[in-house]
Amino acid sequence: MATTHSTRMLIIGSGPAGLSAAIYGARAGMRPIVVQGLQPGGQLTITTDVENYPGFRDVIQGPWLMQEMQAQAEHVGTRMMWDTITEVSMDGSPFRAIGDSGDVYEGDVLVIATGAQAKWLGVPGEQDYSGKGVSACATCDGFFYRGKKVVVIGGGNTAVEEALYLTNHSPDVTLIHRRDSLRAEKILQDRLFAHPNVKVLWNKAVESFTGEGGGLLRAVNLVDTVTGEKSAVETDGAFVAIGHAPATELFKDKLQLDESGYIVVQPGTPKTAIPGVFACGDVMDHTYRQAVTAAGTGCMAALDAERFLAELDFERAQVAEVG
Ligand code: NDP
After folding, report:
1. Atom 30 (ligand 1): residue with closest C-alpha?
2. CB 26: neighbour CB atoms within 10 A?
3. What integer pLDDT is reported at residue 210 of this predicted model?
4. Considering 5, 134, 233, 260, which has the largest number of Cβ atoms within 10 A of its Cβ?
5. Is 137 a catalytic residue?
6. What is the CA(114)–ligand 1 centre distance, in A?
7. Neighbours of 80 (CB within 10 A)
8. How does pLDDT run across 54-82, given as a tens digit for each residue?
């Protein structure tokens, strides 16, 4: 039988943003519920080495970090729910969400931390060499390619920023784009074209990734989108930077989304246009997209939620007094 779970703070998503909101919310006495979603722990559970999360001098593993965050959240009083939200109503506090299980979740505040997923090319070898040369995050993994040859695939701001970032580590960066012009901002393009360590391959689509049979990536196989000619670029690392898809399907008719589908928040805050509904982490951030920034905005969401609840309680108490 379906059960209704009520809480002061309902959090959808269990990556660094959702769990940081939970840790702060629990410590403020909000007894949060976190509905974990399809990928409990979020994107870090599909990465391996993490070297840039503050507090750990040695390399740590993404899945381990998320287990620790979850354990910390539970230790301070968070209830974790193994469920995926399929429907949400935001007509005012309490906010209601319905899970795949049929259970109903109600929260006086709602924190959306559903994250985003990197888009992949979907070509042979891509998943086989993921973590063994193929990556979707230069900021996370670029450091592992010090002094090595790398390629970046894509033509938007992310691809160009990643290519420029990689020049900090690599003397040989190649940007591979399927057309003959980039969609990245002009200022970024100017920087890219001026950089002596970067070259651009135009009109090239990736057909496959190949390497040492289950070992490390060795080459990216290309086809010319104009002539059909095939070629290969030897490389140690390939960064796929063709965009991200924020998990906002549930909210598209309820909250304002930007042209790429990210939730629009009031600048510098996790506040959405609906009082009591907050968005944090990659679902509202297409610029930084780091575990540490997601955790930071999760903390901000919890602090703002606490303020919202204090005001709500005050208003409810006044109404009760008058009544
Ligand atoms: P974009 O959607 O802007 O660009 C994606 C790029 O990948 C395009 O060049 C596209 O090619 C290419 N691409 C898409 N699918 C494929 C495919 N299957 N095979 C080969 N190439 C493909 O994504 P971004 O992540 O770059 O940016 C997303 C949003 O975030 C944008 O609004 C961007 O401006 C913003 N952003 C802003 C930053 C900043 O302000 N500093 C930093 C990063 C992102 P094509 O051009 O042919 O369509």
Report:
1. 286
2. 22
3. 96
4. 134
5. yes
6. 21
7. 18
8. 999 998 988 999 999 999 999 999 999 99
